[in-house]
Design goal:
Number of strands of chain B: 0
CATH architecture of the largest domain in chain A: Orthogonal Bundle
Largest interface: A-B, 87 and 92 residues
Largest sheet of chain B: none
Radius of gyration of chain A: 25 Å
Order of helices and strands of chain B: HHHHHHHHHHHHHH
Oligomer: heterodimer
Strand content of chain B: under 5%
Shape of chain A: flat
Distance between the termini of chain B: 35 Å
Order of helices and strands of chain A: HEEHHHHHHHHHHHHHH
Distance between the termini of chain A: 40 Å
Structural class of chain A: mainly alpha
Helix content of chain B: over 70%
Shape of chain B: globular
Number of helices of chain B: 14
Structural class of chain B: mainly alpha
Largest sheet of chain A: 2 strands, antiparallel
């Protein structure tokens, strides 16, 4: 009898402490996530410019977005195109991480150099590459001209702008490289040595042992990469102004303009919820398909 | 045995060649940034582009930092945000993480799943309504909207990181302290915090970098040019009819410096932070 009372008292005190400690997050979650999400959901059913009266329009925003907004489809297509190049970055990062994981003199220096571009603030990065891509005075065309090639259009043509932005994003591949490096260093060496004794070649060692062991890192980067790529914004805002001819009007850029330049708050909230739904659906699909192939030690 | 040694040698040569080429390519844009910052306006936009500056224009730095914009005012603004934000994040994220890792009540897991779920939530879903709320509270053009999240654990990622770390600590000290009559908050501040140095260093780097580099937040909330952050101020060199490339690159380089210093100091903690991030599954 007494034991139960003490036990109950204990659980109550544990529970009290639990809520005491997680309170900062829980309050923040309610005030900064849950309530704004609810308001945003309600706002998506209204027409409002923040000045005049709020007008209740039901599902009209969503109907307009899906049936009467070519820019919605354009920006979605542009954003998907951008996200579809994600594997290039991941493969390149994995390739570099493997080289940097070798036991050689000087790898620390190479690791530092590969990572340096990552610490450049995103705004400075956009401005720098804008200048690198400059048609008349940029470094890239200067290099092309110096080896006898003619100048390239880079950001100025619909055909080359996406390609240019991908090159720029590869410059910051170091962010992915460090994660792969950490994963590669966690690979149990004895497994590889055992395979060696069994006569496994380089190909088998890498693709049958190392790769499955680091597959959680690959999967993690894929998920975070997809979520990040669908939210691409700054390059469009700072470098291309969504152009040329709307070819870099990324989804968030379109949403930002609707909300903060045209003050169409209800419509923009609708766009945000559609993006949320798209991210959820894609994440679930990736988890159900690729996620099943990921190897977990435990 | 000989053949594996040979294979290793060829592999090393291949790796060196690729790494040297890549390193040169990775460094080149930063070299270009430095060279541009030292060229005159006319030289930067001349019809015959030059790689090396004809005359070193250290003048650009003076103009960029003291004349064209009040750079150090923006620098101070950003330092203020970073210091307050990082401090608040470190304290609250570790407190919350301690709660999740040490008090195993049955709803613990439920809340932790919600926490992880918020990592998937695109910030745009709450961006517009949050803006409306802050506008109604007349707090646009203040740092409140930019900093408030830091007082509630920063981001879910930091809490996740901290929980991984704290769960790996032995519980003996805490039990001993409890027998001595210390309450949970005393235990947290006297015993846990001193054990968290590597974790705090890792969170500080991530938080410093994300606040220093933030663009979307200031873009939406800070319209008053006096309150601009340093990242925001770089765009001021890009004017409608001309861009002051030399001065812009000079200011950009100065903006990178604090991050370089932070990384140089805390490099080893940063790597341990990434390993903690759970990439091993």
């Amino acid at each position: 009898m007494n034991d139960i009372v003490i036990k109950n008292k204990n659980i109550i005190s544990i529970r009290k402490n639990f809520y005491l400690f997680i309170a900062p997050w829980l309050i923040g979650f309610i005030l900064l996530n849950a309530i704004p999400m609810l308001i945003s959901l309600v706002m998506s059913l209204t027409k409002w410019d923040m000045i005049t009266e709020v007008e209740w329009v039901g599902l009209k925003n969503f109907i307009d977005i899906f049936t009467n907004d070519p820019l919605f489809y354009k920006s979605l297509g542009v954003t998907f195109l951008w996200a579809s190049f994600l594997p290039i970055g991941i493969i390149f990062a994995l390739f570099l991480a493997n080289l940097l994981n070798r036991k050689m003199i000087g790898t620390t220096i190479f690791r530092t150099i590969v990572y340096i571009p990552v610490i450049v603030p995103a705004v400075a990065n956009c401005l720098l590459w804008n200048w690198m891509f400059n048609i008349e005075n940029g470094l890239l065309n200067m290099i092309l001209n110096s080896v006898g090639l003619s100048s390239y259009t880079w950001l100025m043509s619909e055909k080359s702008v996406m390609f240019s932005l991908i090159i720029m994003s590869l410059w910051q591949v170091g962010a992915n490289v460090v994660i792969f490096l950490a994963a590669l260093q966690g690979v149990d060496k004895t497994l590889i040595e055992a395979a060696e004794i069994d006569g496994a070649g380089m190909y088998v060692k890498y693709f049958r042992i190392t790769l499955p062991l680091i597959s959680p890192a690959i999967f993690f980067q894929l998920i975070m990469g997809i979520i990040g790529a669908l939210q691409v914004f700054m390059q469009g805002q700072l470098m291309t102004d969504g152009g040329p001819n709307k070819s870099t009007l990324f989804y968030i850029l379109y949403l930002y303009r609707k909300a903060f330049e045209q003050n169409d708050m209800g419509y923009a909230s609708g766009l945000a919820w559609i993006l949320f739904a798209i991210i959820m659906i894609i994440t679930i699909i990736v988890f159900k398909t690729i996620g099943k192939k990921v190897y977990y030690e435990n | 045995m000989v053949s594996t040694k040979k294979a290793k040698l060829y592999g090393d040569i291949f790796a060196y060649v690729i790494l040297i080429i890549c390193s040169l390519i990775f460094i080149l844009p930063l070299v270009w940034m430095l060279l541009t910052s030292l060229k005159s306006y006319d030289e930067n936009i001349s019809f015959i582009p030059t790689f090396l500056p004809q005359k070193l224009m250290f003048e650009n730095y003076r103009v960029a930092l003291f004349e064209f914009i009040p750079y150090f005012k923006y620098f101070t603004n950003s330092i203020f945000l970073v210091v307050v934000g990082t401090f608040a994040t470190v304290i609250t994220a570790t407190i919350v993480a301690y709660g999740f890792s040490r008090f195993k009540v049955k709803e613990n897991n439920f809340f932790f799943m919600i926490l992880l779920g918020t990592m998937m939530l695109p910030p745009q879903v709450t961006m517009i309504s949050s803006y409306v709320i802050w506008a109604k509270l007349y707090l646009v053009n203040t740092y409140v909207p930019l900093l408030i999240g830091c007082f509630f654990g920063g981001s879910a990622f930091y809490i996740f990181l901290a929980k991984q770390f704290i769960s790996g600590l032995p519980i003996d000290y805490e039990e001993a302290a409890q027998i001595d009559g210390a309450n949970k908050l005393q235990i947290f501040f006297k015993i846990i915090i001193p054990l968290l140095k590597p974790l705090i260093a890792a969170i500080s780097i991530f938080s410093f970098q994300s606040i220093w580099n933030d663009y979307m937040g200031p873009l939406i909330y800070i319209k008053d040019v006096n309150l601009y952050t340093v990242a925001q101020s770089l765009t001021l060199f890009d004017m409608p009819h001309e861009t002051l490339w030399g001065e812009m690159m000079a200011a950009s380089l100065v903006t990178i410096l604090p991050i370089v210093i932070i990384f140089a100091f805390f490099q080893k903690y940063f790597i341990s932070g990434i390993t903690l991030g759970g990439v091993k599954g």
